[in-house]
Design goal:
The complex is a heterodimer of chains A (about 290) and B (about 450). The longest helix of chain A is centred in the first third of the chain and has 25 residues. With about 290 residues, chain A is α/β, with parallel strands linked by helices. Chain A is about 50% helix and about 10% strand. Chain A has a five-stranded parallel β-sheet with strand order 2-1-3-4-5. The relative contact order of chain A is 0.14. The radius of gyration of chain A is 23 Å and the shape is globular.
Chain lengths: ~290, ~450
């Protein structure tokens, strides 16, 4: 039996709900914008949010999960940011980057995947003001803990790690199962119409980048031998090079890189990612040095 | 219209505001019927005629069965089972994209999607037919009352499955003064808290159990996800039912309790007295007992259990996974009868044995939820085998274990906290506790997702 009257009960319940909500609203309105907090690490939300929260870098790499493997700390190029969206595209990352008042001076665009277009929900969230500014207390606490617990290594330490990785022999991990699966998936060409639509979008975005005084460059991350020769990879490369035919805008990463490994058949392993970052560093300096 | 939408909140407020007006008191049943039709038709108007055919058809068979139960009761039950079978299983035989029978009416019928809640209102129809044609029934409801029993909006889509004999006597004029508003608020707040805070947040993680995402999950995370889904499906369905019970109370109707801490069950038979109680009760009353229950030889009892559990599985959907889920629960129930029936209970060992039994039952129930989460049987088997295979995924998805724990905590506390502690808390701090739950579900609600049982 309830000792409290219904009115008393609702009054206490309402007060217990309202008080923390008021405190929460005050903190949310006065404090910094809450970061989006996915329930798993390395999500596109986290990557894009970090890009929007931090100062605009000098060099920006945009792309899919292939690019996400390139750890920023391993680059020699200073003030460089990587926006690789797992399951996403360079187009989405570019749309978000273009929404900021200032653009990086140099933008490198991954061209390995052209059948993925814009992710409207992500773009709306960061460009259209769709992002909730209201923090979620439990997720914020966990995010704080996770960022503290899994903080990226400092630059000096990262360099030591990278050097050790390159000195080590290539991995002998047997990736045949994954490679066979990836080969099957890439054995048919993606839709030409979709690729050309996305290419047109990219061309429009690159025009905007150049109109704002920045330089756009393109790169294809190296794929395992069989995949590099696959129907899908060749079709994509043909469309990409037809759309952006100025060879001076392309970084050439493939030929000169030995001993690369793709543990899951598609994505570079840690050691290979370090080697590719070094190659990008070299290509960047040759493109950026005064002619 | 889902319970978690703002449209639903507005709908409930408007109906509640009108319902207790003195001028409306004589038409309360009609108001609830119209409101329920609006609720059901909102978003899928094309299925309203099907609902009307189902209810009016059942009512017609009810009238006929009052005259001759032997003839018309089986026909009425068959009519309802045919409806259920047609809508649930037609896509096993027809591809909606290429249906062309030459008759536009037949094509339209074959293309109709699965009506939301059909499994639930068909069971209500059968209960109406069986309960009200028994010899001891003197009260014959009119068509509006029958409509209300079947389509009362809090229970229309996902139950709880209320027996006609329990619901119909409650139909009478209702007064606001008789409503236990605090009890209704407690049910509704609890329901929304479990749905928005627990189930919706856990759903973001258990999405990794879907094909092909589970292939990116580490071995230990595959195990974690199974138990998270166990918590999620409970929070989701318990949450829905709690909201339904609270809404029922608001309009003066007591709907049956559907869950009673199922994850502290020490046996599989106990589990089925605690999980989806209204479905278990329905199956026992209208299927297991008519089949003979445990009144015949032992093997016949086991066969009856297997039939009931197999059909219970198929009731959820036309997929091998659901059949496997129901059948395996049947096997566990049979094995339990075989093994536990021969052991003597020892009160001294009880304190040790019972927790072990609870863990074992929870483990088995959780493992079987995999067939629920992955209705494609091959995917379910692949997930299961992946849980026992050394994992070599080079770039696995990483889940936040800490977040998983915090979102599961309400279910764990609800099940494991000593009742004496809850009782003490209830006495001293109950309104504050519910207030804090309301605040937490407002600021920490997970992304909106439909109730799992809506698909059934």
């Amino acid at each position: 039996m309830n000792a409290v009257s219904p009115q008393g009960w609702f009054l206490k319940c309402g007060a217990a709900a309202a008080l923390p909500l008021l405190v929460y609203a005050a903190i949310a309105l006065a404090g910094p914008q809450a970061p989006p907090l996915p329930t798993s690490r390395d999500g596109a939300l986290t990557v894009l949010d970090r890009y929007m929260q931090e100062p605009v870098p000098n060099v920006l790499l945009v792309g899919s999960s292939l690019t996400a493997r390139l750890n920023e700390e391993y680059f020699d190029t200073p003030n460089l940011r990587v926006v690789g969206l797992a399951g996403g595209s360079a187009i989405t990352a570019l749309e978000v980057a273009l929404s900021r008042g200032r653009l990086p001076g140099t933008i490198l665009i991954e061209m390995n995947i052209l059948e993925r277009g814009e992710d409207p929900a992500l773009v709306q969230r960061f460009v259209g003001g769709g992002a909730s500014t209201w923090p979620r207390p439990i997720r914020s606490a966990i995010a704080f803990y996770e960022r503290w617990h899994h903080a990226p290594p400092d630059r000096r330490h990262a360099k030591v790690v990278a050097a050790a990785l390159v000195r080590a022999p290539p991995s002998d991990f047997d990736n045949r199962i994954y490679l066979e699966r990836a080969t099957r998936e890439l054995s048919t060409a993606p839709s030409d119409a979709i690729m050309r639509t996305n290419l047109a979008t990219l061309q429009r975005l690159v025009e905007k980048i150049e109109a704002r005084g920045s330089q756009a460059y393109f790169y294809n991350l190296p794929l395992a031998g069989e995949l590099g020769d696959s129907v899908a990879a060749k079709a994509t490369a043909a469309v990409a090079h037809a759309g952006f035919s100025d060879d001076r805008q392309w970084l050439h990463l493939d030929g000169s890189i030995p001993d690369l490994r793709w543990a899951d058949g598609v994505h570079l392993d840690e050691r290979s990612a370090v080697i590719v970052t070094q190659s990008i560093d070299r290509e960047l300096s040759s493109h950026l040095e005064p002619k | 219209m889902t319970f978690t939408s703002w449209q639903f909140s507005l709908f409930v407020v408007v109906v509640f505001a009108i319902y207790y007006l003195p001028q409306v008191r004589s038409f309360q049943v009609q108001l609830l019927v119209l409101s329920s039709l609006f609720f059901y038709g909102y978003g899928q108007v094309e299925l309203l005629p099907m609902l009307a055919v189902s209810v009016l058809g059942t009512y017609l068979f009810l009238i006929l069965a009052w005259r001759s139960r032997v003839i018309w009761l089986p026909i009425g039950v068959a009519f309802n089972l045919s409806l259920l079978a047609f809508f649930k299983y037609k896509f096993l035989f027809f591809d909606p994209a290429v249906i062309s029978t030459g008759s536009s009416a037949a094509d339209l019928l074959l293309r109709l999607p699965l009506p939301i809640g059909i499994s639930f209102f068909v069971f209500h129809n059968i209960s109406l037919l069986v309960d009200l044609t028994k010899g001891d029934q003197t009260r014959h409801p009119d068509v509006t009352e029958a409509f209300l029993y079947i389509i009362f909006f809090p229970q229309l889509v996902s139950g709880p499955i209320t027996r006609a004999a329990i619901f119909l006597p409650q139909i009478r004029e209702k007064y606001l003064a008789d409503v236990d508003l605090v009890a209704a608020a407690k049910w509704i707040l609890t329901g929304y808290f479990f749905k928005l805070y627990v189930a919706n947040n856990l759903n973001e993680m258990t999405a990794y159990m879907d094909y092909p995402l589970y292939e990116t999950v580490r071995l230990e995370d595959k195990w974690l996800l199974v138990f998270l889904y166990s918590y999620q499906i409970y929070a989701d369905f318990f949450g829905y039912t709690a909201i339904a019970i609270g809404l029922g109370l608001l309009f003066g109707y007591r709907l049956p309790i559907n869950f009673n801490l199922p994850y502290i069950s020490a046996s599989f038979s106990e589990f089925w007295t605690r999980w989806h109680i209204s479905l278990s009760t329905w199956l026992r009353t209208y299927l297991y007992i008519p089949l003979g229950g445990n009144r015949h030889e032992t093997w016949r009892t086991y066969l009856n259990i297997m039939i009931v559990m197999g059909l219970g599985g198929l009731w959820h959907g036309a997929a091998l996974s659901y059949l496997a889920w129901g059948t395996m629960h049947g096997v566990l129930l049979v094995l339990e009868r075989l093994l536990l029936g021969k052991t003597d209970s020892n009160s001294r060992l009880e304190a040790v044995v019972r927790p072990v039994q609870i863990c074992f039952v929870f483990f088995c129930v959780s493992m079987l939820w995999i067939f629920f989460k992955l209705p494609n049987f091959d995917h379910a088997l692949a997930y299961l085998s992946g849980m026992f295979t050394a994992n070599t995924i080079p770039v696995p998805a990483k889940l936040f274990n800490s977040l998983a724990l915090l979102y599961s905590l309400p279910v764990i506390i609800q099940h494991l906290a000593p009742p004496s502690l809850l009782e003490a808390a209830r006495r001293s701090a109950e309104p504050y506790l519910y207030g804090l739950m309301a605040a937490l579900m407002c600021v920490e609600a997970g992304p909106s997702t439909s109730f799992i049982y809506f698909q059934f």
